[in-house]
Write a structure and sequence with these properties.
Its cofactor is a divalent metal cation. This protein has 295 residues and is an alpha+beta fold. Helix content is 61%, strand content 14%. Helix 1 links the parallel strand 3 and strand 4. The chain is elongated, with a radius of gyration of 34 Å.
Amino acid sequence: MSLQSMTGFARHLRTSAGAQISWEIKSVNGKGLDVRFRLPAGLEAIEQKARNLFSQHFKRGNFQAALTVERSAGLAKSMVNEPLLKELAAIAAHLREEYGLAASTPEGLMALRGVLEVPQEVIGPEAQAELEGAVLAVLDETLIQLAHNREAEGKALGEILRVQITTVEMLVQQARLDPSRSLDAIRARLASQVAVLLDASPALDEARLHMEAAFLATKADIQEELDRLEMHVASARTLLDEGNGVGRKLDFLTQEFNREANTLCSKANAASITTIGLDLKAVVDQLREQIQNLE
């Protein structure tokens, strides 16, 4: 399966069951699957079935789904509540004369609640069931479109992640080949440290100092961290090849990347290794930030 971004948008409109049905869905990243609906009056009963459709298409993400339904015009006509309109117009005229308020407009008065009465068309159970079925069918089509959009963005996101993982691999290789890790460099560093200590206190046992210096050098060795980082690079590439639904696993893996990078910096006994470790931490932070958008 392809990688999917959790960020996406889809809008789909179709005429069915005597109505124009339109769904608009936005999605952003989230730890789980969370859907919030905005449904017109009379169609609240579809919410649970609509949620089930979302869970069939997606595993993670925060979604906002808005439904608009415009039924074909029937015989019922809108009516103006003239007594209420006259009463409101008189009140507006009084307020204008008394307080010098701006003159009211017909549009403003008509917009007040109760002035314009729009009769609600009552449909029977069979027509209601047909409409609900059509609404869910259009939702399914919209979710398919959204999945395609998220896959397209996921593909682009995957390319970015692969570049960042390759950068991690290159930094690990730089640390492996760094001159400060050569045997000659280590010997020279140990000899220099022992010489400084002996000059400071000639009474110290030279053989003992060499043993302690060798122990500290072994403790500061970063070979294990480099090996684990290479293993994490291989695991990350495997997950990216595996495809959809690996965002959470990759997020956990970046925590391991970060842990090894921190240890590498703390063990570093050369400025060049410290620089590589800091560069590594920066790339891992970028990697984790991108992975937050992956399903």
